[in-house]
Specification:
Helices cover 24% and strands 22% of the residues. It is α+β, with helices and mostly antiparallel strands. Strands 1-2-3-5-4 form a 5-stranded antiparallel sheet, covered by helices on one side. The longest helix is centred in the first third of the chain and has 18 residues. The protein is globular and about 35 Å long.
Length: 177
């Protein structure tokens, strides 16, 4: 059985506006290091929304922990804080300037959730798939209307005794030496 090690990164911080930008840059750098560049935008957006919720709602303090973990084909991003109140996804009014964060996290992630963490805290998390879904493209139609013979790409090695070119010539390397 082949076992793949997990990759894990943890950052503790005060969920203040200046720190949120720093964590977003840390998450981006870590995903680049893991060669997961296509996930950077969605992971950064999700972690920004979750940290903004901690800044806006968490009581009594804004201390939290951001964890990103890669297991096989799934990236999990979670934010742990010390406020036991569970978040609620509300339908925001059309002109409201807030209240859409968790709905946005739900829309851009594969899955998300919240769970209690001990007696006085919670963890809000979301997952992103690390592999792109396979999309089959329709077959391309050939533009050739007349069958063409392939052109020869390498010089012929020699000529036949009758002066005509041989049908098969040995392949020659395009690399000097």
């Amino acid at each position: 059985m082949i076992s793949y090690p997990s990759r894990h990164c943890t950052v503790e911080l005060q969920a203040l506006p200046s720190r949120i930008g720093q964590v977003r840059r840390i998450v981006s750098a870590q995903l680049r290091y893991w060669h997961l560049d296509p996930l950077i935008d969605r992971a950064s957006l999700g972690v920004t929304e979750l940290l903004s919720n901690v800044h806006r709602h968490a009581q009594p303090d804004k201390t939290c922990t951001v964890e990103i973990e890669l297991l096989l084909d799934r990236l999990t991003v979670s934010v742990r804080d010390g406020d036991p109140r569970m978040p609620v996804v509300d339908d925001a009014e059309p002109l409201a300037t807030c209240g859409r964060g968790l709905a946005m996290v739900a829309a851009m992630s594969e899955s998300w959730g919240v769970r209690p963490d001990g007696e006085s805290g919670k963890v809000v998390w979301f997952t992103l798939p690390t592999s792109a879904p396979v999309v089959s493209a329709p077959p391309l139609r050939s533009r050739r209307t007349v069958q063409e013979k392939p052109t020869r790409r390498f010089a012929e090695v020699g000529a036949c005794a009758d002066g005509l070119r041989p049908d098969h010539a040995p392949a020659r390397s395009a690399v000097a030496g």
